[in-house]
Design brief:
Elements: H1 2-15, H2 18-70, H3 86-92, E1 97-98, E2 118-119, H4 138-143, H5 148-164, H6 169-174, H7 177-181, H8 187-217, H9 223-250, H10 254-283, H11 289-305, H12 307-317, H13 319-323, H14 332-368, H15 373-385, H16 389-415, H17 422-425, H18 440-461, H19 464-469
Antiparallel strand pairs: 1-2
Length: 474
């Protein structure tokens, strides 16, 4: 009986055009989303390549000036920009600290719409106030990006709902349910079989489209990340089909089915993430950035008044600089760099308060993300694509570390009154971004979680209490 039911259901879906329509819809959605995501990745690569090219051209000009100075020629340049000064090199010829996109960055935009992907730390800059945010359209922030993660998390459940919300109710409304009830078959198993046919078709088509997408749009295929991504998508699809299965058995007609499952879609996909975000902001509010900026200005103003005293204390703590400068030829940057160290120490508690509150918000979301499969999927896909919050925090910490390394490399030239030469150019520190370790070990438990949710729903449906309740349908 089940064999004939499978064949009949497949023929019905092919004849009424559901399979063809959904196949074409998935093809268009996946293709456009992957294309849109790849265009953003290309723009990101182009921006980084452009800024690196500008730095290379600036370095060539710097080397020409240095060669002219070392040859004893006069150069036509402003005194404070002459590259023999270490402060000119540190401020006007910085290195590019870039975060290149991962091979799977086209999957999810994640935080990439909010944060910049390259910074040029300077010697006199404030590494704790480096601007990592992009100036983007508020409309784009509101609606987000049309990428694969958007299609999978938001649109895929709607396709599944449209494909399976009336599997049982349609039979009742057509008058064929009583005929089915007279057959020696279990109604839950019969509905499950019809759901499984739909699940297998959409899953198979989705997997084929994803593999084709990886082959076309990925520069280098990471087999582990690709398999993790596919498993996540399959688990997410299975969750929504299991939910549709439960709704088909528990509600009466097609209208109720549609309203119920769409309501659950709103809860899981829209309301739960928004509520968690609002609760996180309420429980762990971020300190006022305006107050931090005002406090920073006050501290800088006080440090400016005491620059000579600060420099004396700095040279007392670093006698190697005082010994190498017996004439005590103090200039603006001698006093300024010493005062910057003091300002940095004074502002560390204020900045750390921002970071602690942000970490608390992230920990809050991590604890309660299990309430919604959409949150699990979004965080996992961001992690696979290298655009998660942790990825950008990792990038930010590396840039701050490099900014300090850049400063510390040039400070000895400044306080020793040592000119910068073309021979010193090759020893300048370079930034190399180190991505986080692969998150496959974290993603697998998420897959198991989604599977366990699905199995739990199936267990509820096939419990004896539910089975007896199903007799009321007839």
């Amino acid at each position: 009986m089940y064999k004939y039911n499978f064949i009949y259901e497949l023929k019905t879906l092919l004849r009424n055009g559901w399979i063809q329509l959904l196949s074409l819809l998935l093809l268009v959605l996946f293709g456009f989303a992957a294309f849109n995501g790849s265009k953003k990745v290309e723009k990101r690569k182009l921006d980084v390549a452009t800024i690196k090219k500008e730095v290379d051209e600036s370095d060539q000009k710097m080397l020409i000036l240095l060669d002219s100075i070392e040859q004893g020629f006069n150069v036509n340049a402003s005194p404070w920009t002459i590259p023999s000064r270490p402060t000119a090199v540190g401020n006007y010829h910085p290195r590019v600290a870039a975060m290149p996109p991962s091979a799977l960055a086209f999957i999810a935009s994640g935080q990439s719409d909010l944060f910049t992907h390259y910074i040029k730390p300077t010697m006199a800059g404030d590494d704790f106030t480096l601007n990592f945010t992009e100036i983007i359209s508020p409309v784009q922030q509101l609606f987000g990006s049309f990428d694969l993660s958007f299609v999978i998390i938001y649109l895929m459940p709607l396709i599944i709902i449209a494909f399976s919300y009336n599997v049982l109710s349609a039979e009742r409304e057509n008058g064929s349910l009583k005929i089915l009830a007279s057959q020696p078959i279990s109604i839950p198993m019969w509905v499950l079989q019809k759901i499984v046919i739909r699940f297998l078709w959409i899953t198979t088509l989705t997997v084929i489209l994803l593999i084709a997408t990886f082959a076309v749009f990925s520069d280098s295929i990471d087999l582990g990340s690709m398999l993790s991504f596919i498993l996540l998508v399959v688990a997410y699809i299975s969750f929504w089909f299991a939910l549709a299965f439960v709704i088909n058995l528990r509600t009466g007609n097609s209208a109720k089915n549609a309203i119920t499952i769409l309501g659950l879609w709103l809860v899981f996909v829209l309301l739960a993430p928004s509520m968690m975000n609002q609760l996180g902001n309420t429980l762990y509010p971020m300190p006022s950035r305006t107050l931090m900026i005002n406090q920073m200005r006050v501290i800088k103003a006080e440090a400016t008044k005491k620059q000579d005293e600060i420099l004396d204390n700095f040279l007392r703590d670093h006698p190697e600089y005082a010994i190498n400068d017996p004439s005590q030829n103090r200039q603006f940057y001698h006093r300024y760099m010493a005062s910057q160290n003091l300002v940095k120490k004074e502002l560390e508690p204020v900045v750390s308060q921002f970071e602690k509150q942000l970490q608390k918000q992230q920990a809050w979301i991590a604890k309660l993300k299990w309430v919604s499969p959409a949150i699990i999927m979004q965080q996992a896909l961001n992690q696979i694509s290298g655009s998660s919050t942790k990825d950008y925090e990792n990038y930010r910490s590396q840039v701050i570390q490099f900014a300090e390394e850049w400063r510390q490399h040039l400070i000895p030239f400044l306080y020793n009154n040592q000119p910068f030469t073309s021979k010193d150019y090759k020893n300048l520190p370079l930034f190399e971004y180190k991505p986080l370790m692969s998150g496959n070990t974290v993603i697998m438990p998420l897959v198991l979680l989604l599977i366990s949710i699905t199995l739990g729903i199936l267990g509820i449906v096939f419990s004896p209490k539910v089975k007896s309740a199903k007799t009321l349908l007839f």
